[in-house]
Amino acid sequence: MKRSSDQIQLRKLYSRILNLLLPMTSAVMTWKGLMLMTNCRIPIIVLVSGGMADLNRGDLFFTSNFSDDPIHVGETMVFQVEGRGIPIIHRVIKLHKKVNGELKLLTKGDENPVDDRGLYPPGQEWLRRENIIGKVQGIFCCCAWETPY
Amino acid sequence: MADGDKKKATLPFGADEKPIKVDKWDGSAVKNALDDVAKKILTDKDCGYGYVENYVLMDTRLLICTVSVMFALAALVYDYLRPFPDSRPVLILCVISYFVLMGVLTVYTTFKEKNVILVAHQKDQAGVDPDNIWTVSSSLRRFDDMYTLHIAYEDGQTSQSREASVVKSVASWFDEEGTLLMDLFTQEVKSIHSSLLTEKKEK
């Protein structure tokens, strides 16, 4: 009698653990699914600090990173350089394309007086394709929850 | 032959047990309390009918969930070890498998498991004939006080099945403070049980 009540207790406990885990795993898998759909390491990103025209802290950005979607001057990109953990969202102001398809980009925050060269690691004058996380495709503004610093 | 009535549920249930008290406004606690008593009446060896609980239904659901969680963990770990573009194939496999399994889970709980809270086997006394199967399901809608208790009986030998249910307000079995009136509810369950067995004898 005790054994069967142990069995049911075990099952109830395990069932409860699973009920806790499943919403979390669903969130994680939805995120991974988005990554796959947009081909982008960070498909949705929150703006933490200002520096761009019309883009405010707390806005959500949807990014994509398709290789057949060429980058143009004037587009807003999300990029990451070595030494800086947080990705940066700025506009492309200069673009060089070599014959073999290799890209060199220069970016600048709209409201900054100078370009981003100061943000790139010493010795790096241009952003390369590997630094780009994705291109901003859409904005969901005014989410305004607490953003981590 | 009163084979079902041989082990009568003794009332009140285990006199040494504390009365069950729940928050009468908490629908889920109320349902769980009623479900637990109904299950105990059918399965308890000492003060119930002593039927053997069959865990297959619940275990299948637990299995589907476990496999889903494994896929999610695999995706997490693999993506961590080999960052994104490299992990693409594995991620695709895991994500698709996960959502397919979620679909399977939804179909399973909606159509197979439904509201079943217990599947129990009534073993034949002589150990010769196949078991009779008792399936108990219950439902209590959110913010509703009408509790439905449904018991289905499937005869092992004739494969005939009968079912009976009772739909009553939970107020019929709980007092003002939320204490479960064990005698009343036990009586309710036993009478459904007996009615299913006597129907069989008449046929």
Automatic annotation (TrEMBL), chain A:
<protein>
    <recommendedName>
        <fullName>Signal peptidase complex catalytic subunit SEC11</fullName>
    </recommendedName>
</protein>
<dbReference type="GO" id="GO:0005787">
    <property type="term" value="C:signal peptidase complex"/>
</dbReference>
<keyword id="KW-1133">Transmembrane helix</keyword>
<feature type="transmembrane region" description="Helical">
    <location>
        <begin position="20"/>
        <end position="37"/>
    </location>
</feature>
<dbReference type="GO" id="GO:0004252">
    <property type="term" value="F:serine-type endopeptidase activity"/>
</dbReference>
<dbReference type="GO" id="GO:0006465">
    <property type="term" value="P:signal peptide processing"/>
</dbReference>
<comment type="function">
    <text>Catalytic component of the signal peptidase complex (SPC) which catalyzes the cleavage of N-terminal signal sequences from nascent proteins as they are translocated into the lumen of the endoplasmic reticulum. Specifically cleaves N-terminal signal peptides that contain a hydrophobic alpha-helix (h-region) shorter than 18-20 amino acids.</text>
</comment>
<keyword id="KW-0472">Membrane</keyword>
<dbReference type="InterPro" id="IPR019533">
    <property type="entry name" value="Peptidase_S26"/>
</dbReference>
<dbReference type="InterPro" id="IPR001733">
    <property type="entry name" value="Peptidase_S26B"/>
</dbReference>
<keyword id="KW-0812">Transmembrane</keyword>
UniProtKB/TrEMBL annotation, chain B:
<keyword id="KW-0472">Membrane</keyword>
<dbReference type="GO" id="GO:0008233">
    <property type="term" value="F:peptidase activity"/>
</dbReference>
<keyword id="KW-1133">Transmembrane helix</keyword>
<dbReference type="GO" id="GO:0005787">
    <property type="term" value="C:signal peptidase complex"/>
</dbReference>
<keyword id="KW-0256">Endoplasmic reticulum</keyword>
<dbReference type="GO" id="GO:0006465">
    <property type="term" value="P:signal peptide processing"/>
</dbReference>
<dbReference type="Pfam" id="PF06703">
    <property type="entry name" value="SPC25"/>
</dbReference>
<feature type="transmembrane region" description="Helical">
    <location>
        <begin position="90"/>
        <end position="111"/>
    </location>
</feature>
<dbReference type="InterPro" id="IPR009582">
    <property type="entry name" value="Spc2/SPCS2"/>
</dbReference>
<keyword id="KW-0812">Transmembrane</keyword>
<feature type="transmembrane region" description="Helical">
    <location>
        <begin position="60"/>
        <end position="78"/>
    </location>
</feature>
<protein>
    <recommendedName>
        <fullName>Signal peptidase complex subunit 2</fullName>
    </recommendedName>
</protein>
<dbReference type="GO" id="GO:0045047">
    <property type="term" value="P:protein targeting to ER"/>
</dbReference>
<comment type="function">
    <text>Component of the signal peptidase complex (SPC) which catalyzes the cleavage of N-terminal signal sequences from nascent proteins as they are translocated into the lumen of the endoplasmic reticulum. Enhances the enzymatic activity of SPC and facilitates the interactions between different components of the translocation site.</text>
</comment>
<comment type="similarity">
    <text>Belongs to the SPCS2 family.</text>
</comment>
